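User: I'm curious what two different proteins look like when written out as structure tokens. Can you demonstrate?

Assistant: Sure. I'll show them one after the other, since each token string lines up with its own sequence. Here's the first protein:
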Amino acid sequence: MSEPYDVVVVGGGPGGYVGAIKSAQLGMKVACVEKRGRLGGTCLNIGCIPSKALLHTSHLYEEARIHFEKIGIRAKGVELDLGAMLDNKDDVVDGLTKGIEGLFKKNKVDYIQGAARLTGANAMEVALNAGGSQQVTAKNIILATGSDVMPLPGVTIDEERIVSSTGALDLDKVPEHLVVIGGGYIGLELGTVWRRLGAKVTVVEFLDRITPGMDGEVSKTFQRLLARQGMTFKLGTKVTGVDSSGDLLKVQVEPAKGGEPEVIECDVVLVSIGRRPYTEGLGLDAAGVALDERQRISTHDDFSTNVPGIYAIGDVIRGPMLAHKAEEEGVAVAEILAGQKPHIDYNLIPGVVYTDPEVAALGQTEEQLKAAGVEYKVGKFSMMANSRGRAVGKTDGFVKLLTEAGTDRILGCHMIAADAGTMINEVTVAMEFGASAEDLARTSHPHPTLEEAIKEAALAAFAKPIHM
């Protein structure tokens, strides 16, 4: 048994590896236990990063095949090499995972490859990937094991024809017809990838709208834009089963509120109905760690569990299952262990869908403000009136700013735009410092940029926009 560590992090995803590095930078002796054999977690290996690589390359393919001619570029004979596209995705992932290993060495974080199981409040046994086991003790343990795919009752995922997001990143050919079960971020992004590459895509969503929880106006506009690109939607519809006995899959669906069933034939089904905390085999019972009603690890505001010395962050605790949320928590818990007093404003964790156009959400929606009885104003600006958007052919969408009626303080921002995932950061900083719409509107924005739409939306919230 090694000397006790100050901190042992279980899980090498965005929350775990960031928490481990930050703890080491703050002077602690740190180890990170990861069973995958590659650092970066779901996000880097089978989530955020590979999906963004495919979104990028599939976007370029569609631009060259369909849109280049409109702007005076004739690209004849554009062909898809799916194998090379997937190889590029894998190369990106491989480089980044090795980069994290390099960061561990630089910051003197011990990397233990294996599956950890708690044996007490300050101890664990690690079944090593290379064989055998190792006893590890720590003054503090941070659980950062992430999440796993939410299964759909009655539907068996084989990662070949019925796939999760993992399998959808590695299909060996473009489906003729892809059925996506679930209208959330992940399903829409991966559906977009395969639609661009030539698949017919049908999205089946149990609720009566896509991207539940997003601003209602944004959801409706987003769906309309995706439909215009070729996606088909069946909303208010539940999947009761998938028959995989024949050459084609038969997806059995019926109206969520009752009605006549029907069958959708396809060759690939993507199950994307959400994710659940991954706590299997962690030995939580042995250590006495409590779970909440949704089987997440129950934590206090300082990320501590009911067991002194054991903390948890990321997807295994409450809050949005987002990599950047986990990273913020990784830093925060390290600072808490070092005696500091960090703060995270969970209202200011942006959410982004990386389609084209992108969709970004921050703060309160109109629906939430109405439900809370808050008097608010809306400042809205269309990307059609944005000079840069017109110049580069990216005119779909709008920026909507929500402000408190009496104070002009920004309460939320929701946008559909070509680069919304980058644009939203300006508003995040503004809201972090309690800015008003007037503050944002009176800040000089370079011309021509897409970000000028934010300035104009801010003008619209407290006065009038100039360019619309």
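Here's a second, unrelated protein for contrast:
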Amino acid sequence: MADVQAFRAYRYDLGRVGNLSDVVAPPYDVIDASLQEALYDRSPHNVVRLILNRETASDSETDNRYTRAAQTLRDWQQDGVLVQDSARSLYVYHQDFEVEGRRYTRKGFMARVRLEPFGAGRIYPHEETLAGPKADRLKLFRAAAMNLSQIFGLYPDEDGAATATLDAAVGRALPIQAVDHLGVVSKLWQVTNQQALSAISGLMGPKPIFIADGHHRYETALKYLDEKRQAGEATDPNHPANFVLMMLVSMHDPGLVILPTHRLVSGIGDIRADGLTSILAESFDLETVGVGPDASRTAWEMIEADGSQELLGFGTVADGVWQLGRFRAKELMARLAADHSAAWRSLGVAILQRVVLDQALPQAGGQPQRGQPQCAYVHLLREVNDAFAAKQCQLAVLVPPATMDHVAQIAGNLEKMPPKSTYFYPKLLSGLVFHSLKAN
């Protein structure tokens, strides 16, 4: 059973730091150098100093971004910048945002969740992980002994019982709020009502949890726990290192938005619509939509209306033409991805990768081309059209987003989805709550 618990979070004392918007930040892995500088400048207490401290030329084993983050954390705790709540709590977290002209509110709550190895319990990953980010986060875990950012988890709640329980617990209380650099409004409520806490723990117990974002940090938390146990620590099952901070959102929440991840392909030379038609003729039925940005929007609207994973949009930059391509070679996909399930093979991103990028384009004309196609990734049609106009790629491909059903089916089968299959928007803010990994 999933063990979802209330806990005593550390939080910013707004009387010390001022506006919450000035001290929060997006996850470390979407912070580039310019945003890092902007966050440093925004406040001397911005959480970027913890989750992504600056590197310096003089960094050493004893003085580096991880040790500086840990010292900053200790200083903030000692100075009362970060204060631990007195009562065990759940933290209701809503995000108000806009995508492609539509407004949404995504509702969830933050809790600590008992760690389980993947495949051994009720927590399931859906993406592959890389060694580099896990090594980076482990150094920070060791130095800070604090969950500085939350894992994003999804759970089934078709009847909305958990959300209704928390809505009732919040009532008409005013939240604390923060607005991020993208204009997303985050709202936070603390829930201490014991009846509500017990109800949520009971409701969540039998449910599976699918990790939407934060796979590297989850696996790092497992590694950190293993190290603590080997050192003779965290032997008490209620030791905080047995848990990880998680934001939990219902898979049926109306504000749960999965954006598509479109591909901008380069390294294939100039290619025109007729050439692409010839290359893909054996596996796709292609239909020309038109030329330019209006044609890309029409193609995307047709993909959305179709609702399947088999329809992709192809834009050839050399002539500005957009085509729709419907995949019809399932037997080819079965051969190219024989080690995967039928659900995995049906994904648009999987079809694009295995059939188009791995096979058709590199072998165009029966002759191997120079290297493999290279991809950049964007999520909005505006970004596709901007790259198209600037000729930043030779081929743009519109890909339908995977759905929650795909995530649940594939992850529940203990498979990992292809890279860049999902993009849950917006990202969760770091700096709203922190979970200590030290025994009280």
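A detail about the second structure: Residues 215-230 form the longest helix (16 residues).
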